[in-house]
Amino acid sequence: MVKPDGVQRGLVGEIIGRFERKGFTLRALKLFRPSKELAEEHYKDLSAKPFFKDLVDYITSGPVVAMVWEGNGVVASARKLIGATNPLNAEPGTIRGDLAIQTGRNVVHGSDSPENGERETGLWFGEGALVEWEPSLKPWLTE
Ligand code: DAT
Ligand code: MG
Question: What are the residues whose beta carbons fall under 8 Å from the beta carbon of 126, sequence distance 6 or more?
């Protein structure tokens, strides 16, 4: 997901482009402003943290671009492409390492496990939102 700061800063194309160029397949995408309830459910594991309210305020402060990407090892790979939570610790070449300077404005979210990927897909898109399609480049990306 491109967070509200990423959308406001005009980084949507840059971020989507990195996942496209890597070779992952886009299965769903939408721009919308998440509700407080959705944000709280999404980040419920962090509800006891002191920064929880600020996090929910941030994520609901404007439109986000939610996406579902598919491909070999996509969850772990996406976490690497995204970089460390604190952008100052994120390696150059990663999205956060290249494009952000503060944890509270780290431009992008990525699911941290396949199970959470499934959970978050259901939460952000609901049932039946994934588009089935065969990328024509598939034989050039995987054998
Ligand atoms: P990530 O987004 O890398 O998966 P996370 O799941 O631990 O990181 O936390 C979710 C978001 O919460 C993170 O992107 C930014 C915010 N956050 C995490 N730790 C924080 C902290 N110590 N201070 C402020 N915000 C924090
Ligand atoms: Mg996380």
Answer: none
